[in-house]
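[Automated response] Your request has been received and processed.

Submitted sequence:
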Amino acid sequence: MLRGLTTVSFFADDIPAARDWYTELLGIEPYFTRPVEGPPAYVEFRLGDYQHELGIVDSRFAPHGRSGQAGQAGQAGGAVVYWHVDDVHAAFERLLSLGATVHAKPVERGPGFVTASVVDPFGNILGVMYNKHYLEIFGV
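Generated structure:
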């Protein structure tokens, strides 16, 4: 039934600020913006080995509404989606240096599995994970 990750949607009140923050974090520009002219209501990045999509949606379009202030871990919203990284501790520190706040510090979950998560400046939970199964797909 579930065939793979297509798009992860995060919400933000300030799309240009979120676009700039994620551009800095990812080192790439979004490949898609809607609308094309005027202030964006949606931007989308393709990233990683499989070119998964990360979409940033204007909060006014959130189907469930938004509660709390951006960056407050106790009021962050959404599921925790983990993105594979080669070094969880380094990725976690970089996210904090860019203004994210701690959601869950790095934890070894077992041999070959380390997770951590932050709350981005827009109130979304962003997970990073070293996952040996992810690397096995590439024969690493």
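Summary generated for your ticket: Helices lie at 15-26, 88-97, 132-136. The radius of gyration is 15 Å.
If you did not submit this request, please reply to this message.
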